[in-house]
Specification:
elongated, disordered C terminus, 643 residues, alpha+beta, 7-stranded antiparallel sheet
Length: 643
């Protein structure tokens, strides 16, 4: 597979995206700690309790985001973030580096966090004289505790809009106090150590100045420790680095399923994807439960997305402590007495079914976690069954489906079968497989029967759509299960309500395998609706994702569905093109994945890193290089040659 050697631009499209931030924090931390290409180190806090998780972030809530940051300055300005060069380790351990060539001098930062719940970020700053003569110069450093978006120069947490960092946004009080080789605002503290050839000057509590004299080509080093936890003022950067290395080596040694481990590039990529996944596990301040973040700077949870990483961790290694932590949240914090799993964040109708999917995926491999949460999972299953029965008893609702509910981030409410119900049916299938593996014959039989009934309701929707469009070259599946035009118009216009999800029918056998109907569905998606190019399956740019320079491609979600469809039908060349596209275009040179890319704008890389994109890519890698999971629960009726 030939990788692009350039970044995307109008002159040379279809290159790599730029990495916009690197994660430094450990798993289960209360802070999101990121290194930015303009030398900013940001410590964002994760609010505690259910309410802050409901709407912690957003364009109108930045004042509710406690955060603190430090940045290095040259000639009183932040370095240009577009000129920063990241470097990551080839063992996947998140000890990251950044280089900025500033002309007469270069700055190189090496950064990592320790492994505490409230982490400390350690930085070694190397200053190099690039001249052939002695240089007397200085760099500055300033720190602020302020709203997160002000520190970043952003107006939302996901990266959909360009950032505009500026030192002017940092000049507001309160200023930090200097005292004995440290700066503090009373909560956050920065300690620093400097060499003999560096002199420190504080300027009106506005910023620190580090004055140095360097011979031609010479270097000097400064060390920083930054946290709201206690910091030993005599800290050793190298000793702390050894402890962090040992921790991460232990965590990544839990990987047991490892495609192409002998290939150094795959080794680096795969361990990096897993490490970023573990960094999504977070502890909100002041509470005892764990959340799984989806990525970027968001604090919210999307269980329908998270299920992908839970499934991956269960398959590839010994990650029980991570899975157990999120299952405690799902089943001991979020699960209501009714059995419903109620999300802290956006109330997708598929949350309970997605928790059931995750449990089934884990049960396939882990008997102890199965035993621990099997009653909670059964309650979740019974809740969905009761909701389906509710619809059966109400003639104005689609029979045997989930009641009308918000199905995605888009606020429209309807029986959006192509999102909520398809996710739920996948949850039933995985749950039944887990029960089957664990030998619970009675419940496996009950869930299996419910699966076929539920799947049959979706089959009826597909059959009706096919019949109504029997003379069409392309088939458009409806968004609303009842085919009501007013509701159809409402929900079909929403984000993700139909276009990126109804291809999940390919992996439930509702279209038949490699059938004329399946081809007509794909024809609609690839030729008239979503597009298909270079292995990417979904170009989709809602109006709020402005400004747009090129076409914007949504990665891994729909791609993985089509990938598995091609694999099952012997179209391996097409499947490999989709997998390769994820590694070529949806992954940066630092092994970070985003939610979307712009094929001519390398700086459009929202939601990076990305929990579910990492997980779906790992699953495709394992599927291709090792083999598909043993999952045969519903194959017996998938081959319907009449389609």
């Amino acid at each position: 597979m030939k990788q692009p050697t350039h970044f995307s631009s109008p002159e040379t499209p279809w290159g790599k995206p730029h990495t916009t931030q690197l994660y430094l924090h450990p798993p289960f931390a209360e802070n999101i700690v990121t290194l930015r290409p303009n030398t900013t180190i940001l410590l964002g806090e994760i609010g505690g309790g259910a309410y802050p998780q409901h709407q912690t972030t957003g364009r109108h809530d930045e004042s509710d985001l406690p955060s603190s940051a430090m940045v290095f300055l040259y000639r009183n300005q932040m370095p240009d973030y577009k000129k920063g060069e990241f470097s990551v380790r080839q063992d996947g351990i998140p000890i990251h580096s950044l280089r900025q060539n500033l002309g007469e001098i270069s700055l190189e930062m090496e950064c990592f966090c320790n492994t505490e719940r409230v982490p400390t970020v350690f930085t070694k700053l190397t200053i190099q004289n690039n001249l052939d003569e002695e240089l007397k110069d200085q760099i500055g450093m300033t720190a602020r505790t302020a709203p997160e978006f002000d520190l970043l120069g952003a107006n939302e947490p996901d990266g959909y809009y360009p950032i505009e960092p500026s030192i002017n946004r940092w000049m507001h009080a309160p200023y930090w106090q200097q005292d004995e080789e440290k700066l503090t605002d009373g909560q956050y503290t920065i300690y620093y150590h400097v060499g003999e050839n560096v002199r420190t000057v504080c300027h009106d509590r506005n910023r620190m100045h580090y004055l140095f004299t360097l011979a031609p080509g010479a270097k000097t080093e400064l060390y920083f420790a930054f946290s709201r936890a206690h910091i030993d003022k005599n800290f050793s950067f190298e000793e702390e680095k050894k402890k962090t290395e040992a921790f991460w080596e232990g965590e990544l040694s839990r990987i047991r399923v490892f495609p192409k481990k002998e290939d150094p590039k795959f080794y680096a990529m795969y361990r990096s994807l897993v490490a970023q996944g573990l960094q999504m596990f977070a502890r909100p301040t002041g509470v005892n439960y764990v959340i799984m973040r989806q990525g970027g700077l968001q604090r919210l949870m999307w269980p329908t997305e998270n299920r992908s990483l839970i499934r991956v961790l269960a398959r590839i290694g010994d990650f029980d402590k991570y899975i157990d932590a999120i299952f405690k949240t799902y089943f001991h914090v979020m699960q209501a007495e009714s059995g419903e799993v109620v999300n802290f964040g956006l109330p997708w109708g598929s949350v309970t079914g997605s928790a059931l999917f995750a449990f089934g995926a884990v049960a396939m491999y882990n008997e102890a976690l199965y035993e621990k949460y099997k009653e909670n999972a059964y309650r979740a299953f019974r809740f969905i069954e009761e909701q389906r029965e509710f619809c059966t008893q109400h003639p104005d609702l689609a029979d045997g489906l989930y009641p009308p509910k918000q199905s995605s981030d888009f606020a429209a409410v309807g029986q959006v079968w192509a999102h909520t119900d398809l996710w739920n049916v996948h949850g039933y299938a995985m749950y039944a497989e887990g029960l089957k593996r664990r030998g619970d014959e009675a419940r496996a039989k009950e869930v299996t029967e419910a699966f076929w009934d539920y799947r049959g309701r979706l089959q009826a929707i597909v059959d009706r759509a096919v019949q109504e469009q029997k003379d069409n070259e392309r088939i458009i599946l409806p968004a609303d299960a009842r085919f009501i035009p007013e509701i159809e118009e409402k929900v079909a216009s929403g984000l993700f309500s139909r276009r990126s999800n109804d291809l999940k029918v390919l992996n439930l056998g509702l279209l038949g395998e490699e059938s004329p109907i399946a081809k007509r569905i794909l024809k609609m998606h690839f030729e008239t609706d979503n597009g298909y190019e270079n292995g990417m399956c979904l170009t989709y740019a809602p109006s709020f994702l402005a400004p747009r320079k090129g076409r914007r491609w949504y990665g891994t979600w729909m791609d993985s569905d089509v990938h598995y469809y091609y694999r099952r039908n012997g179209m391996d060349e097409k499947a490999k093109e989709i997998l390769d596209a994820q590694l070529k275009y949806m992954m940066s040179k630092e092994y970070y994945m985003g939610e979307r890319i712009d094929d001519v704008d390398a700086w459009f890389f929202p939601w990076s890193p990305n929990c579910s994109a990492n997980a779906r890519t790992i699953t495709m890698l394992c599927d291709w290089y090792i083999g598909p999971e043993e999952f045969t629960f519903y194959e017996k009726e998938n081959s319907d040659e009449s389609k």
